[in-house]
Structures are given as structure tokens and as C-alpha cells.
Amino acid sequence: MRVTAPSFAKLNLDLRVLHKRADGYHELRTIFQTISLRDSLRIDFTRAKRSKIELDSSVEIADNLVVRAAKIVLDHLRINAEVRFVLDKRIPMGAGMGGGSSNAAATLIALPALAGRNIPVAQLAGLAETLGSDVPFFLHGGTALGLGRGTELYPLPDVGKHHALVVSTGIHVSTGEAYKALGRNVTNALTSEAESPILREFQAIAWLLDSAHLEDLTVKNDFEPVVFQIHPALAAVVRKLRKLGARPAMMTGSGSAVFGVFESGLAVRRAAEAFGASLTFPVGFVSRLQYRNLWRRALGPAAEFSCFGK
Length: 310
Ligand code: C5P
What we know:
Blueprint: E1 2-20, E2 26-47, E3 52-57, H1 65-77, E4 81-88, H2 99-115, H3 121-131, E5 143-148, E6 152-155, E7 163-167, H4 175-182, H5 195-208, H6 224-230, H7 232-243, E8 249-251, E9 258-262, H8 265-275, E10 280-286, H9 288-299
The protein binds cytidine-5'-monophosphate (C5P).
Cytidine-5'-monophosphate is lined by residues 25-26, 28, 132-134, 149-150, 175-176, 179.
């Protein structure tokens, strides 16, 4: 059995980092959005007496999440199989676009389908969490609200068709280091006095998301001040995107990719020219329905056994 799975990138349209929790993770409020930029993950699957997992990637990646995800699925299903992955990477790495997490989620979605053994999405989400905080989002796609570690997810109304330009400078930001640089205190209180105004601001954005124009919302990414201080070049890219007409223009995740939302595909292509093609990715937002349909098309009849159903 063979499928070529689509593995999409994400942007954070808003990202608030609240306190540090007793478990070492930070309490988040974020809005995730899948975009059309994607890796492609070809998977060959054959039931066998002994399991063998191989990964051939266009980019060398240490401790690849795809292999770990595959082991988790085979263990969970208690089956042995020879699984061969060919990963064609397009999503920049260490860029805050969830590339590695998306590849892991793609494996969690596709392998049960190839094995003809459905894993209910609640169980799949549990497996996804063990692989990373951004992995569960990619089981759903579209526009979603992320709470807690970022693993508790709820659907948000579609924000509609949007065109964006992602600029990836190649600067690598370590997620762990970025969180540390925020210097948040550990607390057990769910909402401290200081967090209440931030939560109200975030809620206002979530409520307005489907009715207001994205360009009118004062979206925020709490990582920007600390990451821009270390890498002023990134702040300059955001300023340039704004000058070219992007609203909003901001960083995604803990960086380093930044993006600008433009009013048309033409405006995106014009802005891309101003940056030089090698650093830029013109993208469109991918809604939950599109995500589901693209996945179902990729899986064919096997989709019946995936989390996307019949
Ligand atoms: O979950 P993931 O492995 O992607 O997280 C990488 C690092 O980012 C964690 O080790 C942790 O330091 C930090 N993190 C955090 N709070 C979150 C998510 C990630 O502190 N909600």
C-alpha cells in the first residue's frame, strides 16, 4: 500500500504566553491556521513479521518525528510492518511553522489508514501530544483555538480565503530558548491578576475573528519582543511587510518566519519581488473543510480508516 500524504504548515494568527506551569510548559492562548505550503510524505506500507521503519528525507533531520510517530502507531495497533517514508521538505525548519509537527501528525493520520485500522481521534490526540505541543493541531487543521500547552484544541469559524507572504530568513530560533527568554514565573493560578487583561484582549479577537476583517484586528505574538531583540533583522522584515501593505504582519510561533496578510494574490507576488524569491513563500489559508478534503483525496479508499472518516 502506498500513499503520498500532504503535510501542511501552520501560522499562529495570535499567540499569548501566560505563566509557566508546574510541569515546565507554558500556558498558552493561540489561534492556529493551516496554510497551503506543504511537505509531501510518501509512505509505503507492508505488513511483515518484523517491523522496519526507514526514512529518506530531502533534508537531513536528527531524531525525526516521523520515525517516532510511526513506532508509536505500530505499538498502539500491536502490529508489525515495513514502513518506508520519502519526505520532500518544503516547509522551512526551525521557523515556527510546525513543519516537524505536521510531518508527525501526517504519519499518525496515514499509518492507521494504510493498516486498515482506525484509531479514534481522541486516542490519536493523546499519541500526538507525546510527540510535541503542535502535533495535535495538525490532526484537525483549519482555524483552531489552542489552549493549555497548545494541545487542547477547539474549532474556530473559518477566517475565509486569505493570501499571505511568508518570509523565512533562515535564522534558527530554538523554541525552548525563546520560552526561557520570556522569563515567565511559575504559578499554579489559572489566571493571575496580570493575565486578565491579556485574556480579555485575546477573547475579543477570537470573538471578532469571523465577522471582522483580519486587517482590523490587533493580533499579537508575545514572542516578538524577545526574539526581535536577539534578531533585529526579523523586526525589519515585519516593518517592510507593513510598508508593502500587509495587515497584519507578524512572526509565527517562536519564529523565525514572519508573514504578512495581503488583499490579493497579486499583492503577495508584488511583495515577494521586493524580498527576492529565495526567502519567500506565497501561501493561501487552508480551511478545515479543505484540509479534510485534501487529506481524503490523498488517502483514497483508505480514508475510511482515518480520522477524516468516510
Ligand atoms: O512540546 P514541544 O516539544 O514542541 O516543546 C518544545 C519546548 O518548548 C518545550 O521543551 C518547552 O520548553 C517549550 N514549551 C513550553 N510551553 C508550551 C510549549 C512548549 O514551555 N506550551
